[in-house]
Design brief:
By secondary structure, the chain is of the alpha/beta class. It is built from 14 helices and 30 strands. A hairpin with a 4-residue loop joins strand 14 and strand 15. The radius of gyration is 23 Å and the shape is globular. The chain starts with 19 loop residues before the first strand and ends in a 9-residue tail after the last helix.
Length: 536
Amino acid sequence: MIHLNTKSISLENLGIKNATIRYQLSSKDLHEETLAKNQGVQSSLGAIAVNTGEFTGRSPKDRFIVKDAITKDEVWWSDINLPFDADKFDLLYDKVADYLSEKELFVRDSYACADKNYKLNIRVVTEYPWSNMFAYNMFLRPTEEELQDFSPEWTVINAPGFMANPEIDGTRQHNFAILNFTKKIALIGGTGYTGEIKKGIFSALNFILPIYKNTLPMHCSANVGKEGDTAIFFGLSGTGKTTLSTDPNRSLIGDDEHGWTAENSVFNFEGGCYAKVINLSEEQEPEIFAAIKKGAILENVIMDENGVVDFANTSITQNTRVSYPIYHIDNIQQPSIGKNPKNIFFLTADAFGVLPPISKLTPAQAAYHFISGYTAKVAGTEAGVTEPVPSFSACFGAPFMPLHPTRYAEMLSKKMKEAGVNVWLVNTGWSGGQYGVGRRMPLKYTRAMITAVLNGELSDYTYENYHIHSVFGVAQPRFCPGVPTELLSPRATWNNDEAYYKTAFKLSNAFRMNFKQFEEFANEEIRRGGPQRYAF
């Protein structure tokens, strides 16, 4: 039997010399280490609370991919996938290795992909104990038997205290997150935001799986019903991806990153959840609230002197988060694999308040909306944002997609047709007017709509049962169990047709302008999946 805390491993092969290595510490030990080093405070809920420092979210302009023989002709080089010189990477890597040498480091062996046919072994080397605890929560945890002959395929090096020199190192500023597919390294420095750790591996899998494994990687959550039907929820941050998939009547597969295989199964990449906690309440989201206990990590929250968290306080950031191992949720699928996908939900928080709260999409519309990946920013979320602003992220996860979006869309379209899935657009955003005028769609009604779909209570399309939206062309149901009928028509909730259509045309124009970058790669069927009426 291996005693994990004392197993002798070396980082010499990584160029890290004479480090004091704390290997495979338990979550409890890492919690205690964080407290002992005054890097965190225990909350009244038992979870440890940390402050990630200067960066409270990802820094997309500081994410790079090394341009080399593997990536040069495959990656969609853009303002999302920024190239980094291979020689510059080697020089910067050596600097980081020197910085970490002779330090106390926390090392964790783990893996991604719950389906063993796609398993990716990962070694995570971190400067801080709570970063390593995050890796414990978010990646899959090997058994002691699996660790005996563990051989890492990818390595994550996480050095928040190392500051790059942009003029010498080739970075944009002092922080960076760089993927090297030849050396199989994710190198992160200058930022304590833990999300960079998981998104680095997610980005790697978004390259590896479609090219080498004929598997579609997805920025989505997923759950499975008692009859074995899998539901998939795509959505950007703040649209309800974690909340809506965490359903007491269905088993959670995972909340953020999945693969859809050629065998028509869906597997979780991760071993935990990373949920936003802004305005979290026990009443609205009891499963997530209950998961915040010893073993969870709260990020950038405000607490009082008794450790009580004020979830409404966004004085540090709106992107307050909690990380916890998936077993903190009672109703989970074990292993984290589902079969037989039946329904796909595209979640959007439409702050313009013009999209229906739920609508059914044709295959062409599904491909179009997948490539578009629409949600909206609301006033106050970013400096200078004073009214709703459309936000598009291809495939509902552009910052993590190294390939051209149409490659993922074509894979999704093919799988949807083969599996015969229904695709639904769900607006978790505003009703009765845009942000500042209307109100956010009540969660209980969104849940009722999702439940109606999963129970087969929204019938097939007929004129009697559905209305075609006059601007976006989607089919909105006229009736839904548990939902007031007047809420199903966004136009009816406005009580002002002129203002409604003016806003709807404004949003449809934004869709059209965004899609111009993809038009030459999209076939005629997909192009016709977008809104058919525009304001001129």
